[in-house]
Amino acid sequence: MDEFNASKPIYLQLADRIQRQILSGDMKAGEKLPSIRDMGIKYSMNPNTVQRAYSELERQGILETKRGQGTFVSERQDRLVLQRDKLKHEQIQQFVHVMQEMGYSVAEILSGLEEYLNHVERGG
Amino acid sequence: MIRMTNVTKKYRNQTVLKDISLTVPPGKIIGIVGRNGSGKSTLLRLISGLSLPTSGSVTVNGETANRRIGKVVSYSAELGSFYPIFTVREAMRFQASQFADFNLAKADEIMKLMQLDPHMKIKALSKGHRGRLQIMLTLAREVPYILMDEPLSGLDPMVRESIVKGMISYVDLKSQTLLMTSHEVSEIETLLDGFIALHDGSLHRTADVEELHESEALRISEWMKKTYL
């Protein structure tokens, strides 16, 4: 499938995708996830890979599996908030790293970001 | 577990497979990849017991793969041969009469998913529908090993997608293992746990797909191009 690239394990890409849906609020706390098989069918993906993605998110405390009932988005808001912060930090770190590599100063990054965000806010 | 030990296969004086040793663990979907003529189909036929090695041994769950191995292996050839005057339902009943493990209820379900008309004569089916029929007949058997030779070859993208979805829906990896050959590697990449790469009849590599992504950041097709497979 073209939606997945080879630079990273597919199960982690699926885990990232599910995580983004949860953090953006597309999936709510306590909501039930599709079964492993249904998720596999949706993305034409090996059920073993889906299982690995679910396990990874469980390990991070974002998903919970209830025996005999299925897999759910964790009700524990603290874990979600924590994960949200972590993701934000990662993205900013990456962005700043690239900008500094290209020689932009802190002041330039800040003003550029501000300008861009103002522009977006105005609906540009 | 499928185990091949020092397997060589010759047809007359042509060597098709050279000294292959490998194991396929249960509960996985494994792709056999390689160019035309690399020995993919022969490998699959040896495991199905329809063809015997010239030297070396092939075992499935500890038993030698010969004609009798069909009780634990469901094999689908690239060019399925059906009685053309049969209807879809008759082909189903025929399969059920040949294999005690053929699950008619499951076959019915797959037939509906694949939108096959049970009353259609096989000779009137399009190539795509024949492909679907073959998937139905192969997957409805409750056996630990399912072998498919080029299940997607020559079919249009929509049929290929419905076949892939059928595989995910009806192969139970808790109790079954799926082994298939394919030219359309990029299309089945997310479906595979691992792959067996053949080159000119020799085993080139067996690997986990995610391992390839992690260690070399390549898709199977890219890796094949890189290594001139």
UniProtKB/TrEMBL annotation, chain A:
Keyword Transcription regulation listed? The answer is yes
Molecular function per GO? DNA binding; DNA-binding transcription factor activity
| Pfam families in UniProt | GntR
Record keywords: Transcription included?
yes
Per UniProt, the keywords (alphabetical) are:
DNA-binding, Transcription, Transcription regulation
Give start and end of each HTH gntR-type domain. 8-76
Q: Which residues form a coiled coil?
A: none
Name of this chain's protein: Transcriptional regulator
Look up and give the organism this protein is from: Tumebacillus flagellatus
TrEMBL record, chain B:
Keywords, A to Z, come to: ATP-binding, Nucleotide-binding
Q: Name one GO molecular function term.
A: ATP hydrolysis activity
Tell me the SUPFAM superfamilies matching this sequence.
P-loop containing nucleoside triphosphate hydrolases (SSF52540)
Domain ABC transporter per the UniProt entry, residue ranges? 2-225
Q: Which Pfam families match?
A: ABC_tran
Xref: InterPro entries: AAA+_ATPase (IPR003593), ABC_transporter-like_ATP-bd (IPR003439), P-loop_NTPase (IPR027417)
> What name does this protein carry?
Spermidine/putrescine ABC transporter ATP-binding protein
